[in-house]
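The instructor's notes for this session suggest beginning with a concrete chain rather than abstract definitions. Hand out the sequence below and ask the class to guess, before any prediction is shown, which regions might be ordered.
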Amino acid sequence: MHPHATPRSSTRGLTLLELLVGLSLGLFVAAGATTLLSQFLGENRQLLLRMRLEQQAQALADVVLSDLRRAGVWRQAEDGIARDGAAAPMNPYAALQGAAPEAAVDTLRFSYADGPLPEDTAPGAEPSAQAGFRLREGIVDARLGNRWQPLTDPALMTVTAFELTLRQRALDLERHCARPRPLGRCPGSGTCPPRLLQRRVALRLEAQAAREPTIRHGLQGEAALRNDVVEGVCPQ
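After discussion, reveal the predicted structure:
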C-alpha cells in the first residue's frame, strides 16, 4: 500500500429503501397521533357542550321554581280569616291560570303581591305583579307584566319538554266549624265542608344542545306555593 494513501471509511449512509421504510413508519405514527388528537378534541367538545347544556337547564329550572314560589303571596293574608261564621275571603292571588290538578301544562300564569304595602292600603288594593311561564317553539318565555320575554337562547339550547303540574293536598276543616255534621247540613251547591289546599307545582324539563341534538339533558323539581288556599263553607 502506498504510504500516503487514505484508508477507506467503514461508515456508509442509508439506502433509499431504508429511507422509505423510515418515512412510512413515521407517517404511520403521525397518522395515529392525529387520529387520537382528533378523537380527544371531539370528546372534549362533546363534554363542554354537555356541561353547558346541563348548566343552562339547571339555571332555567332554578329561575322557574324560584319565581313559582312567589305565586299567591298575599301581604294582607290576615284578611282571609273567617269571622262570625262567614266564609273566609279568598286570596286574590291564589288563581293559577291554565293549571288543573294533576294535569301537565306548558303554559302557566299567576300573580302575587309585590312592592311595599302602604299603611292606608284598602283590602285587595295592594300592589301586585303578573308572572308566568310558557314553552313556545323550543323557547321558554317568562311573563313580565303584560309582555313575554325569552328566558332561553335558541342558539345554545332547545327545550323539548316543559311541563308544569299542579299537585294539591286537601285537608278537611269541618271539625273547626260551629255546626259540623250531623248537627249541620251542607247546602245543595258549592264546596262543603271547607278544606285547606296545600299546593305544589312540579316541573319536568328536557332540553338538547342546539348544535348537537344528540346531547340531551332532563331534570325535575318542585316548588311549594305560598299561602294555602281555603275554600268551601261550613255546614249550617
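Then share the key points. The helical segments are 16-68. The mean pLDDT is 85.
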